[in-house]
Specification:
The structure holds 2 protein chains of 2 kinds.
Chain A (H helix, E strand, L loop, with lengths): L1 H73 L5 H21 L4 H29 L6 H125 L5 H42 L6 E4 L1 H11 L1 H6 L3 E4 L5 E4 H17 L8 E8 L3 E8 L31 H11 L3 E7 L3 E9 L2 H6 L1
Parallel strand pairs in A: 2-4
Antiparallel strand pairs in A: 1-3, 4-5, 5-7, 6-7
Chain B lengths: L7 E5 L3 H13 L6 E4 L2 H9 L13 E5 L8 H10 L8 E5 L4 H10 L3 E4 L4 H17 L9
Parallel strand pairs in B: 1-2, 1-3, 3-4, 4-5
Helix pairs in contact in B: 1-5, 2-3
The chains are: A alpha+beta, B alpha/beta.
């Protein structure tokens, strides 16, 4: 049983660890997919940014061109406003474009070309403005030069825009793929989690069922054992009835025979008389005495088994029990021994417990009886009773300054018919402690002792605090 | 007038020793009735209902049954059940005399209709005393059919 519950615990731990690992792995995969999605979105944004810059630069140069032409034609300074704005924007956007295209060598080269073209154009425009301002006019040929510059610019601009649009197309496709991957991963994770949960539930169900079967087996085995004990003790009794009965009949026969012989013995020789008396009174009497004593012992032993088997049959009545009253009652029944032997008894307040009244009475009765029985007659006896309660169980202890129990006897004293050493002249069947142990086991408790030979013994016994809950289950 | 002396005591007991001790103590208690000893459950049923070895020889005299429970072939409860089901033996007094004092068995014995349930104690004085009391009981018990016999 213990082995199998250990296995179950291992299984649970393994499943738990596996689940934790699985969940973490799924989370990590989701994280990676998410990162990928963010990256691909960033790339798309980046491309849009580059395109916006290209458009901005191209637009600025166009504005500058238009404004400058207006100035050249009219000579009014106000036309140069948009020219200056364009110039300013250009000075800002051009370096930004350089930064933005750093990841792409081809575009970087194009950007340099763009800048050179733009610079040349700007220098040309500025030169014409300066000349106009100095009072010179402008020539048509100059206009053609401007147009050529603009055409150069448009070529570079278109080239760059084409590349970026191509990139945008690819990156958008990649972003979409990432998005899809992400969603798929989420659904897959959810599915896997559900499968895992179902599996775990299945395993738990299986374990529970197996455990229930094991418990049922145990209960059945226990019942069988009880039945076996009961039948055995009764079938053992049957031959005892004969032994006791016929040995008694023999005694009756001998007694009758003696009466007859008394009357007729006078005729026998003196030697024969003495021998006959010896046979009747001593030999046969002795034999009968031993037969009787053995049968009685056998009867007590079988009764002891019977009594032990009865513990498991009596239904427990769980109710709040006051152990102080029980101890008072037990000490009352032992009062005579306590006063004649001059035993000093100290009782500490005992914690209440929910248990079976009768069981607790028997346990305290046996333990206290033992404490008194095994006191050391060479010193005044002292017995102390106490208890404490923790979350799981309530513990009571009975301490004496008796003769003590040797290390080797510690377990033996709880076995049926076995008794500790140096028990001469102390009556008992070796049943009390076996009985106590069985009783406590039914109360989900235990009993043990600490002892120093020649100094005394402390018996501890516990009762589960959750008996009621266990029974209600 | 009750002629209880005509009543046959049918002792169904598989342990030869127990049978002897019971008989001895009944005699000692002054019971002089005829005692028929049967040591097997099947044989007991045959005897009571005139079957098998006892075909056409069903006992006519009024009787009283001392019944042990642990018997070969048919156990005491089965025999008791048969006795109480048969219209002719239904009223025959049955005394269960056994080593078992299991409360469940005692209860079952009474439920099936036994008149008295007696446990054989190991202590011989107590055993003899039980049988003696049984003898007293036999002396006063009214056995159906005894008056006509």
């Amino acid at each position: 049983m213990e082995l199998s519950s250990l296995n179950i615990r291992r299984w649970f731990l393994a499943i738990f660890a596996f689940s934790c690992l699985g969940i973490n792995l799924l989370a990590y995969i989701l994280y990676l997919k998410n990162q990928e999605l963010i990256r691909s979105s960033q790339w798309v944004m980046h491309t849009y940014d580059v395109i916006a810059h290209l458009n901005g630069i191209y637009g600025s140069l166009q504005d500058m061109n238009t404004a400058q032409r207006g100035y050249l034609m009219t000579g009014k300074e106000s036309f140069l406003g948009p020219y200056r704005v364009g110039l300013e924007k250009l000075s800002k956007e051009m370096p930004e474009l350089f930064d933005l295209t750093r990841d792409n060598a081809a575009q970087q080269k194009n950007a340099i070309a763009l800048k050179e073209t733009a610079d040349r154009m700007q220098a040309l425009l500025q030169e014409q403005i300066d000349r106009r301002r100095a009072g010179n006019g402008y020539a048509i040929a100059e206009m053609e030069e401007n147009k050529r510059r603009m055409d150069d610019l448009r070529v570079v601009y278109s080239e760059m825009l084409g590349i970026e649009k191509n990139l945008l197309y690819r990156r958008s496709a990649k972003e979409q793929q990432s998005q899809q991957n992400y969603v798929t991963t989420i659904f897959l994770s959810a599915g896997l989690s559900i499968v895992g949960l179902l599996l775990a539930n299945g395993v738990i169900l299986f374990m529970t069922l197996r455990r229930q079967t094991a418990e049922a087996d145990l209960i059945r085995a226990n019942k069988e054992m009880e039945g076996f004990t009961y039948i055995a003790s009764h079938d053992l009794r049957s031959p005892l009835v004969n032994l006791k009965g016929f040995s008694s009949e023999m005694r009756y026969g001998i007694d009758e025979l003696k009466g007859i012989l008394e009357r007729t013995l006078a005729n026998a020789s003196e030697e024969d008389q003495a021998r006959i008396r010896q046979i009747l009174d001593e030999d046969i009497g002795e034999a009968l005495k031993y037969i009787h004593a053995s049968v009685e012992k056998m009867d007590r032993l079988t009764n002891a088994i019977l009594e032990l088997s009865r513990i498991g049959r009596r239904p427990l009545k769980l109710e709040p029990v006051n152990p102080n009253a029980i101890v008072r009652h037990c000490l009352g029944t032992l009062h005579h021994q306590i006063t004649t032997k001059g035993i000093e008894v100290r009782t500490h307040p005992l914690p209440a417990v929910i248990a079976d009244q009768l069981s607790l009475e028997q346990v305290f009765g046996n333990v206290l009886d033992n404490a008194i029985k095994y006191l050391d007659p060479s010193r005044p006896g002292r017995i102390e009773i106490g208890g404490y309660r923790n979350y799981r169980e309530t513990t009571y202890w009975v301490r004496d300054n008796g003769r003590g129990i040797s290390e080797g006897d510690m377990q033996k004293i709880f076995e049926i018919y076995r008794r500790g050493g140096n028990n001469e002249r102390i009556p008992g069947e070796g049943l009390g402690m076996a009985y106590v142990r069985s009783t406590l086991r039914r109360l989900s408790g235990a009993i043990w002792c600490e002892s120093k030979p020649g100094q005394g013994t402390t018996f501890y016994f516990t009762i589960s605090n959750s008996l009621k809950r266990e029974q209600d289950k | 007038m009750t002629k209880s002396e005509n009543v046959t005591i049918v002792m169904i007991e598989d342990d030869e020793g127990h049978a002897r001790l019971i008989e001895k103590n009944l005699r000692r208690a002054g019971i002089m009735n005829e005692i028929v000893h049967i040591d097997n459950g099947r044989k007991a049923a045959d005897y009571l209902f005139g079957r098998g070895d006892f075909a056409n020889n069903r006992p006519m005299a009024p009787m009283l049954i001392l019944l042990d429970l642990n018997l070969p072939e048919l156990d005491g409860f089965q025999i008791l059940e048969m006795i109480k089901k048969d219209s002719e033996t239904r009223l025959v007094p049955v005394i269960i005399l056994t080593t078992t004092d299991n409360p469940r068995e005692v209860e079952r014995g009474y439920a099936l209709g036994c008149n008295v349930y007696v446990t054989k104690p190991v202590e011989y004085e107590a055993f003899a005393d039980s049988i003696r009391k049984l003898g007293l009981l036999l002396a006063v018990v009214k056995v159906p059919g005894a008056d006509e016999g």
